[in-house]
Design goal:
Distance between the termini: 49 Å
Number of strands: 20
Shape: globular
CATH architecture of the largest domain: Alpha-Beta Complex
Number of domains: 2
Largest sheet: 7 strands, mixed
CATH topology of the largest domain: Fumarylacetoacetate hydrolase, domain 2
CATH class of the largest domain: Alpha Beta
CATH superfamily of the largest domain: Fumarylacetoacetase-like, C-terminal domain
Structural class: mainly beta
Strand content: 35-45%
Order of helices and strands: EEEEEEHEEEEEHEEHHEEEHEEEE
Helix content: 10-25%
């Protein structure tokens, strides 16, 4: 099994990066692994920690309509260049953390995606060089308030609510180009989304190169590579699970976000 790099919070509130063992124990690292973190003498026993999002990005850069069938279901053509938007770091949560359904929205959708984790500072990279800047891969859910996305002329509000970027459960270094991405709701056996990640319009290397010509990518930053067709609404109480072959599965349950009023 591929090594699984995690970020955890202990019962005492300490946050560590580490390597997940087959026993579910964690070998703690002295720094984030993409910053040459090395194993320490500290190990955490199973059930003594909480899995957090596997990184704490300075920014999350997301790509819209990067699967042709999803562009079609949205009633739009495939973009001729990557369609970029940002999700704030405050939207990031880990697996098994609730997605909060905001009172401003009447429709909140799941969007299962492959996420790239950047390992080195990246500016004006070629696609060939960009491959070496991708440190690893994890799973994301680009949660979207669909009604607000249609209402607003841009997507910051619809995509930016707290908890609207579940990431995890861990990072792996290698991934097959033919790995299948699937999204499941509740206990359904059949996925609502299912596609091979090699069906992307723009490849991960191209996306990293393209984005790096706009903004500097820093170690630990995350790129969401787009969602395949089959997006749809979630309700309060819905449990959504995004699975990618070779990584694992990211699971979150929707709960009501209380109004500030």
């Amino acid at each position: 099994m591929a090594q699984r790099y995690v970020r955890v919070k202990t019962e005492k509130g300490q946050t560590y990066y580490g390597l997940l063992q087959l026993s579910r124990g964690v070998q703690v690292l002295d720094a984030p692994p993409w910053l040459q973190g090395q194993p320490t003498d500290l190990s955490l026993e199973p059930d003594t920690y909480q899995l957090l999002a596997p990184c704490a990005p300075s920014k999350v850069v997301a790509v819209g309509k990067n699967y042709a069938n999803h562009a079609a279901e949205m009633g739009t053509p495939v973009p001729t260049e990557p369609l970029l938007f940002l999700k704030p770091p405050t939207a990031v949560i880990g697996t098994n953390t609730p997605i909060l359904y905001p009172p401003q929205s009447q429709r909140v959708d799941y969007e299962g995606e492959l996420a790239l984790v950047i390992g080195q500072r990246c500016v004006d990279c070629t696609p060939k060089d960009a491959q070496g800047k991708i440190w690893g891969y994890t799973i994301a859910n680009d949660v979207t308030a669909r009604d607000l996305q249609k209402l607003d002329s841009q997507w910051a509000r619809a995509k930016g609510f707290d908890t609207f970027c579940p990431l995890g459960p861990w990072i792996v270094r290698e991934l097959s180009a033919a790995a299948r991405l699937q999204t499941f709701l509740n206990d359904a056996a059949e996925p609502v989304q299912s596609a091979s990640i090699d069906q992307m319009v723009f490849s991960p290397e191209f996306l990293v190169s393209y984005i790096s010509q706009v903004m500097t990518l820093l170690p630990g930053d995350v790129i969401l590579t787009g969602t395949p067709e089959g997006v749809g609404p979630m309700q309060v109480g819905t449990r959504v699970r995004v699975a990618i072959e070779g990584i694992g599965q990211l699971e979150n349950t929707v709960t009501q976000r209380k109004s500030a009023n």
